[in-house]
Q: What sequence folds into this?
């Protein structure tokens, strides 16, 4: 809506005049200073101040200490586990989430609406509840754990259990970003490809998937960054053995429980930095993933 | 759709269609449905009396009370902030706007555990505000204020981002008309803006409330797990589970799962209403 944007920029620049008591005849939204001031103040108090505290705390440590804590063997094992499994879970979600979105948008079948509503369950279910439910379900005596154990597959209290929990919490992110993109696809493009003699596989590969890629990658990124920080749904199923199944957020808690605030903060900042760099790389890859038709966002 | 509906290049063969539907339905039922069924099944595994006893024990009642108090403080604060931020970021353009939006979204990409840690760094015994807290005698960490602050941090973006996205899409002509007709800023907000954003606001409130009542990681770091005093419902679930009192843990969980189901139901309902009322540009 470029029209209202111009109006609003007029509003912003004319604000001084308006608030000084000038007649408000020319479509000016009031309250710029008040609302922006409140927004910045509250944001600073609740979000910016605590994050600044962490950065100051790390800045106060010597470089050797920071490096020693951040690169300890146990910390490296935890990053490797957290980032590796989060990447794996996001990839699984990319495939199953896109497939789920496809089935929900393109096909009609009984029970579709209920299943569609259920996709958001991981958003609505508290993580601790999901955690104990998954741990019980996949435990060697559980509803799914017992048959899997009979096949020689142990899930609970193993790294693969962490993967299950991370796929669970991340699934809605991919489905909910791909679904609207799929709904907005212009059928004319698929029809054009078909009239030009493309096969079904070619249409899907070169027209549909090509256009869904930006949305799918956004969903992948959201699912990945959620998985890295996830705690509640993981710790019950993880086993939490140092060096084997101890995720990075749990290691932070371990440091905190020993009142080692410096150690906990260094790990937290290291995690923030690594995920920031990875997200940046994914964003760059997304920008390079080709032209984005129609300015999809 | 036109006349191409029968073209094989535009339709999946029915065997593929059926197997994809089957695969996705099975995946969703096993992966999402089964954990939910399990919560209620386990909660009632010891019979109705055990279930009721688990929910009415003194510790459980204290946990339920604390969870309600925390949500009753955090959700309204988020509503006020969300509306204010929505107004500031949708009705005006200014430099640094996208930075502000990024900062509002930031709590989504911070691990809940780290959120809790940040509060310990500010209010813990060696924290920035430790001297102030020592002189006034206030307690934040391992006390209710810490739990409220942790909840505020993790729920920060819910209402605001929902309203910012919705209000940016909105047609502002009705507001401009109100101004032209001589209505003041407040009158216009109450009578024009607020009614038009109510569904979007409610949507944000629902998600915010579900997260506020269900938050675990951040709250667990700052709470200290003092039974009857600083245990919220999710923390009480953890305590019971770690004591191998599984039936009681799932009984309390079932209340939280019920909250989640109600949230989903209401959310679907609002989406249904909003689809028809979404502003057309």
A:
């Amino acid at each position: 809506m470029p029209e209202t944007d111009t109006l609003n920029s007029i509003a912003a620049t004319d604000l001084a005049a308006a608030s000084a008591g000038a007649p408000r005849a020319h479509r000016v939204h009031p309250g710029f200073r008040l609302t922006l001031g409140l927004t910045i103040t509250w944001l600073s108090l609740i979000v910016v101040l605590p994050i600044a505290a962490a950065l100051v705390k790390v800045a106060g440590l010597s470089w050797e200490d920071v490096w020693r804590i951040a690169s300890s063997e146990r910390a490296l094992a935890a990053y490797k586990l957290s980032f590796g499994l989060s990447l794996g879970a996001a990839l699984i979600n990319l495939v199953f989430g896109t497939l789920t979105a496809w089935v929900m948008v393109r096909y009609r079948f009984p029970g579709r609406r209920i299943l569609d509503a259920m996709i958001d369950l991981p958003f609505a279910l508290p993580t601790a509840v999901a955690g104990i439910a998954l741990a019980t379900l996949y435990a060697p005596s559980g509803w799914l754990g017992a048959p899997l154990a009979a096949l020689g597959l142990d899930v609970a209290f193993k790294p693969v259990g962490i993967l299950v929990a991370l796929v669970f919490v991340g699934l809605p992110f991919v489905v909910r970003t791909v679904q609207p993109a799929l709904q907005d696809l212009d059928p004319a493009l698929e029809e054009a490809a078909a009239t030009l003699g493309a096969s079904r596989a070619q249409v899907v590969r070169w027209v549909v998937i090509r256009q869904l890629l930006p949305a799918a990658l956004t969903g992948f990124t959201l699912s990945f960054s959620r998985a890295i920080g996830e705690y509640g749904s993981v710790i019950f199923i993880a086993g939490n053995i140092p060096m084997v199944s101890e995720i990075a957020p749990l290691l932070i808690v371990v440091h905190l429980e020993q009142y080692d605030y410096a150690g906990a903060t260094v790990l937290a900042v290291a995690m923030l930095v690594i995920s920031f760099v990875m997200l940046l790389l994914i964003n760059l890859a997304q920008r390079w993933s080709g032209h984005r038709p129609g300015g999809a966002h | 759709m036109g006349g191409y509906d029968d073209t094989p290049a535009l339709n999946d063969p029915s065997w593929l269609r059926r197997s994809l539907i089957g695969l996705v339905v099975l995946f969703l039922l096993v992966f999402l449905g089964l954990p939910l069924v399990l919560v209620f099944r386990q909660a009632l595994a010891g019979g109705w009396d055990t279930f009721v006893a688990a929910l009415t024990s003194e510790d459980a009642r204290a946990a339920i009370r604390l969870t309600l108090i925390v949500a009753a403080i955090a959700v309204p604060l988020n509503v006020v902030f969300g509306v204010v931020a929505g107004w500031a970021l949708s009705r005006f353009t200014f430099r640094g706007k996208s930075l502000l939006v990024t900062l509002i979204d930031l709590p989504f990409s911070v691990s809940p555990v780290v959120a809790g840690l940040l509060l310990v760094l500010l209010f813990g015994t060696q924290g920035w505000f430790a001297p102030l807290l020592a002189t006034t005698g206030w307690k934040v960490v391992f006390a209710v204020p810490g739990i409220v602050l942790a909840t505020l941090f993790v729920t920060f973006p819910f209402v605001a981002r929902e309203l910012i996205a919705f209000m940016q899409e909105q047609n502002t002509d009705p507001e401009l008309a109100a101004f032209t007709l001589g209505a003041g800023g407040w009158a216009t907000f109450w009578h024009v803006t607020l009614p038009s954003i109510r569904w979007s606001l409610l949507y944000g409130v629902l998600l915010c409330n579900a997260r506020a009542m269900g938050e675990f990681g951040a709250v667990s770091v700052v709470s200290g797990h003092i039974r009857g005093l600083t245990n919220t419902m999710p923390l009480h679930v953890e305590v019971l589970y770690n004591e191998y009192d599984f039936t009681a843990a799932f009984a309390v969980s079932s209340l939280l799962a019920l909250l989640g189901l109600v949230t989903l139901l209401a959310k679907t309902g609002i989406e249904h209403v909003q689809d028809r009322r979404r502003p057309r540009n």
Observations:
- The CA atoms of residues 29 and 35 of chain B lie 9 Å apart.
